Task: inverse folding
């Protein structure tokens, strides 16, 4: 077990002082990304510790999703280094980042609509049981474990419900349950609350609290200022591919963050 995961385990009591001293789970240095002539990211440094929730804000095209896709292994950075759990990593595909404990919840969620909630939770990681020489899918086992995960997340989602009949908030619970199953150390959410109801937003925010309590680091991309101020420890503002601010939410205000996003204020 690495140092960082030891800290993770010892944090379940919620010791904030320990968190402040913990080594970063993710450390980005000088990340840049060009798409042909477009400079999507330039010189981005970002560090996040176990149990920290970091809000990533910025106008359309600021580079937020590009940064998340680099951390998730969708494509490599053009410049810079990524350290995860204290080691330099080079991801060539999303499976590489998942295998070290990084999970992404995308806005469109990429769930399989015609499968049940439980089947989606276990997609690609199905439980199997022995049946003579055969290995069969263990539907009962998966439903039971999915139910446990939904309960743990205080979601009313039922394992046998089809995803196509679910609300946005329930889909979020399924996506987040998947991240719990994988023992993620970092969960990134790209605009999880953009298209869901007020009540469901509350559910997603409380799910984020739950991840934090378990020592999991969270990067939350959102355009919704109240969400950021409700759940984040820090807010990072991007503008035109550069990081312009990185502050504890307690030391800033929605007004200042708005000014940083638009460029009315250059940096903080
Ligand atoms: N695959 C790609 N090919 C070419 N250009 C891209 C690609 N992905 C992103 N870009 C460009 O990189 C810049 C940053 O885009 P990105 O999607 O990261 O912004 P964002 O901050 O997530 O914006 P939004 O809030 O609208 O989601 C934009 O100028 C975008 O057009
Ligand atoms: Mg985006």
Result:
């Amino acid at each position: 077990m690495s140092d960082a995961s030891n800290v993770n385990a010892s944090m379940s009591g919620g010791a904030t002082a320990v968190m402040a001293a913990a080594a970063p789970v993710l450390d980005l240095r000088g990340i840049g990304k060009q798409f042909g002539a477009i400079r999507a990211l330039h010189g981005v440094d970002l560090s996040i510790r176990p149990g920290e929730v970091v809000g990533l804000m910025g106008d359309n095209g600021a580079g937020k999703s590009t940064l998340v896709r680099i951390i998730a292994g969708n494509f490599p950075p053009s410049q810079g280094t990524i350290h995860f759990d204290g080691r330099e990593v080079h991801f060539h595909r999303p499976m590489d980042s998942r295998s070290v404990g990084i999970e992404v919840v995308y806005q469109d969620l990429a769930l399989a609509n015609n499968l049940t909630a439980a089947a989606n939770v276990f997609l690609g990681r199905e439980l199997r049981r022995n049946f003579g020489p055969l290995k069969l899918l263990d539907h009962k086992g998966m439903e039971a474990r999915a139910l446990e995960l939904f309960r743990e997340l205080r979601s009313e989602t039922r394992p046998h419900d089809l995803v196509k009949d679910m609300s946005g908030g329930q889909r979020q619970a399924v996506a987040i349950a998947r991240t719990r199953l994988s023992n993620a150390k970092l969960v990134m959410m790209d605009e999880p609350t953009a298209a869901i109801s007020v009540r469901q937003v509350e559910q997603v925010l409380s799910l984020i609290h739950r991840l934090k309590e378990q020592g999991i680091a969270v990067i939350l991309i959102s355009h919704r200022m109240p969400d950021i101020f409700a759940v984040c420890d820090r807010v990072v503002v991007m503008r035109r591919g550069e990081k312009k601010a990185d502050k504890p939410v307690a030391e800033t205000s929605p007004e200042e963050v708005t000014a940083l996003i638009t460029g009315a204020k250059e940096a903080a």
User: Anything to note?
Assistant: Residues 35, 38, 40, 58, 60-66 surround adenosine-5'-triphosphate (ligand 1) (CB under 6 Å). The radius of gyration is 19 Å. The chain has one domain: 3-262. Residues 24 and 49 are 4 Å apart (CA to CA).
